[in-house]
Structure formats: C-alpha cells, structure tokens
Amino acid sequence: MSEKEEFNWDNFETKGFGESYSKEKRAEMEAIYVGTLNEITEKEVIKGTVVGINDKDVIINIGFKSDGLVPLSEFRDLPDLKIGDEVDLFIEEQENSLGQLVLSRKKARMVRAWQDIEDALEHDNIIEGLVKRRTKGGLIVDIYGVEAFLPGSQIDVKPIRDFDIYVGKKMEVKVVKINHANDNVVVSHKVLIEKDLEKQKAEILNNLEKGQVLEGVIKNMTNFGVFIDLGGVDGLLHITDISWGRINHPEEVLNLDDKVQIVVLDFDDDKKRISLGMKQLTPHPWDSLSANLEIGSKVKGKIVNVADYGAFLELAPGVEGLIHVSEMSWSQHLRNPADFVKVNDEIEAVVLTLDKDERKMSLGIKQLTEDPWTKGDMATKYAVGTKHKGVVRNLTNFGLFLELEEGIDGLVHVSDLSWTKKIKHPSEFVKVSDHLDVQVLELDVDNRRLALGHKQLEENPWDTFETVFPIGSIHKSTVVSKNDKGAVLELPYGLEGFATAKNLEKEDGSAVEVGEALDFKVTEFSKDDKRIVLSHTATFREEEKGAKKAKKKADSPAESSAQPEKSTLGDLDALAQLKEQMEGGKK
C-alpha cells in the first residue's frame, strides 16, 4: 500500500451501541423496540409476570422499559409463588429518584377488592368471606381483604344468642351498603336465608292442612307458649297443647333450638296464624284409665293446683279431678282450701262423680272419715242443756257460728250473748278465733242445726232487776250520751236506761248534760224487752209524781202497794251477791 494512499480508521475503531447503524436504520430499530413496550399510567392496577424471586423481593415484568421490584412480604398469602405466575400490581411511580419502577401488590389487592365489592353491590352478587372476630352488635367479615361489618340482626332469620360460634368460619354474604366516606361496608347473610325460606314458606303454606304433622325448631319461648319455625313460617304451640299434664312454663319440658314434631290444629284464612299441638300426637290419658274406676273408688294423686274454690288432684299426667272446698271438711263453715292441702301434696281421695266422655271427675277427702252428724252418740253428746266450748269461726249481723268440733257448727244468736248488754253486732262481744262457752238450746240432727246460747250459762238477772227497779223508784244515774231524742243513762249493776229529751229538764230550767250524775225516777220497766225508761224531771214535779202513782194504782193495785220511792239499803244488800256473780262472770 502506498504511503500516499489514505487509511480509513473508522473501519477499525470500536463503535458505541447502535452507532454502527445509519440514521435511517437507527430510527427503524427504535420504532420496533418502542412497539414492544406497554403504555402505563400511574395509580392504576395492571397485570405483571414474575420473572425473578430472591430473599427480599419479587421481580415483576409488566412490559415496561424496566422491571419492578415488590417486597416478598406482600406475597405471604401465596406461599407457592413461582416464576411465570401472573399477579395484580398497583403502579405507584413509573420512575423514582433511582430510576426504578415502583409497584405494590398490597394496594393492587385493595383497589381490586373495592372494585369487586362495588360490583357485587351493583349486580347483587354473593361473596364468600371469612369471619375474623366478634364485635359489638355483630361480626367482622374479611371479604377480598376488606373488613366488612355483619350486624347480629343480619346473621340469621332467628335470633342468635352466641356470636362466637361463627368466628373463624367461612360465610356467604351479600353487600347491602357501602359508605365511601368511612370506607365502611355492611353485609348480610340473612338475605340469602330469606330467599331460600320464601320458597319453603310458599310450599308449606300451599300444602298446609289441619292434622298435618310437621317438624319445626323452637324459635322462642314465653310463659304462654312456644313459637316454632316450620321453615320460614312461624306457628304457636300453646302451653296447654304441649303436654296432657299440667305445666307452669314450657321450659319445664322444652328447650330453645330443639327440633320437635308437631301437628297443625288450626289456621286463619290468610294462614298468618297457625296453631300447633304436641300432646295431640299421643293418646289421651283418659282413654287408658282403669275400667274398675267408678264412683266411690279411692284414688291417690298429687295436688297440682290450689284455687279459691278448691284443689286439683292429678291422678296421672292429663287426668285431674276437682276437690271442691266443700268436700274437704264436714264443717259447714267453708275455709280456704290452702288450710287443708298445698301444691305437690300426695293425698288420697274418693271419686264422687265421673264422666269419661266429658273427661270430668269430682273428688272428696272428707268422705275418708265418718260424718260427725251421723255418729250414734250425737243426740246424747249435744243434747239440749249440755255445755260445750267452741271456736268462733264466722260473724254475721244476726249472730255467730261456733265450731264445737270438726264438722259440728252451731249458731249463737246475737240476742243470746248477754242478759244485760244490748249487743247490735257480735263483734262487740267476741272476735273470730275466740273461744266461747255455750249451752245447747236446740238440736235438729236431720237438718244439721244446732242452736247455742252463751247467756244461758247464767241465771236471768232481770228477774231480780224487776224488784230493784220498780216503776217510781229513784236511782242515781250518769248521763252517758245524748241526741235529739233523749239520753242514754248508766244505772247501777251495769245496766243502761233511757230518758226522753223532755225528761232531761232540771229544776232550774236547764237541761241535763253528758257526764252529770243525778237522780232519775223509773217511769217504765220491761223485763221481756230489757228496757228501763227514766225521768229526771219527775223527781221534782210533785204533780207528775201524783199523777203517775194514781195511774199505776189504777192499772195494777197489787203492784202499787207501798212501793218505796227510792231503793232501800236492804234492797241493795240483797243484790250484793248477784252483782259479785255478774262481775265474776264477766271476768
């Protein structure tokens, strides 16, 4: 080669990447390369492919000019992640300060979750979630990584008493509300059940018939009965239709959530009220009663109820008889049945009436003992004039009833309580449960009547008073009370007298006042009516005295013979013993 010839050094110099291309070729190559890259936008979710995995990061290719790195911790839910898997990613930055593409799978999942939740609400989709924990008023359910609230009222169609049984379990739900301001999601499981129940309900109602036997679940219990879920339809099992026997509350034989067999007893035209029965599935206990049971039979049982009018004796579950209070004792004085029996007492009784068709029975317990009125010694034991002591059982306006023994009652008339006191009501003399000594005045065994008297235990003092308070005699008396008609006076020996208003005038023209003790003259005396009428005015008006003496002498000459105007000392001495006897009797 000649030294003069030029040397092309460009053929031997090392060129940079792409510098060997012409401008046209370079432009062509750039167009081809750029066409292989994706157009991406920040803050959106795209799909990427795993191209590498190390201890800290996962390398993702999204078809951009550079690969992105995502912390391995964001793939904890994918333990089997491998190269080639596709995952959702959120583009935070196309290029950070280090020139790297910044991606986030966690945010991608959150964005995608909200998109799916909104789509589920819009299209009424069913979502499967995991119950994470219990909270106040309901449960927290994880759906697509978002915590949603499931209210307790939306868990099931029946009341839920224990929320904890759902924690850690999967549950299908529907989104019912989204609050974007608070990122709050409300879901329901109940709506899914209700749809299924609507079909069951329609089928049950269409086929509902009286006498139909169904299976149900006890939904609620009250003191009057049980509500049973028949599969979307509720029916009432009344407490009286649970058992042939008597129960006080359904919880004695049933429990919530129990599955039970029941029979349809009745329902309304709209089939909104359904009456159910349980005892009707078993034979009635009356049908299995012994054929030997008849009137007069002795039976044993347990007292299951005590009312004001009597008690119910249960012979077997569902078989009861009424013991009326009048059949508890031979006493004619009716008392409270609780005085004789109480609930759960086990006693014996006698069958008085029996109607197996009507399933009714009346019983008696007094029939287990002899009727005291039919005893052989009745006529002699309570003969007229015999003395007895009894207990006051009842007071009436006309007297009192005294029980001498169980089944033997007698009447003491109010007029037979005292010789001297005017008793308007027996309560002035005795009270119920007091003991009282009496004498038999009359006995009628056939009619079960016994007349008694208390005052007859003493001699009638009015026979003596007739000689002490003759008409015209004067006695020191105290005015006890006054009214428009006159005044009541306290006389010697505890007697009461009466003076009319016109006979209360004193000698100075003034009227006698209550509390004053003055001389009064007897103007009228009646032993039969136990009445003494007196006058103070007559003690100082001689003309009235003379007129009364003349009239008395004309009417009764024998009685007018030498009657003293005042009681003599001898008369008072003669009555001293009578007074002591009367006072001793009161004590």
Label the overall shape. Answer: elongated
- Tally of extended strands? 30
**Strand line-up in the sheet with most strands:** 1-2-3-5-4
Percent helix, as a range, is: 10-25%
Put the structure in a nutshell.
The protein has about 575 residues and is of the alpha+beta class.
What does this structure look like?
The protein has about 575 residues and is of the alpha+beta class. Helix content is about 15%, strand content about 35%. The chain has helices at about 25-35, 105-125, 190-205, 380, 460-470, 540-555, 570-585, and strands at about 45-55, 55-60, 70, 85-95, 100-105, 125-135, 140-145, 145-150, 170-180, 185-190, 215-220, 225-230, 235-240, 260-265, 275, 300-305, 310-315, 320-325, 345-355, 360-365, 385-395, 400-405, 410-415, 435-445, 450-455, 475-480, 485-490, 495-500, 515-525, 530-535. Strands 1-2-3-5-4 form a five-stranded mixed β-barrel. A five-stranded antiparallel β-sheet has the order 8-7-6-9-10. The protein has a five-stranded mixed barrel with strand order 11-12-13-15-14. It starts with about 20 loop residues before the first helix and ends with a helix. About 20% of the residues are buried. The model is unreliable at about 35 and about 560-570 (pLDDT under 50).
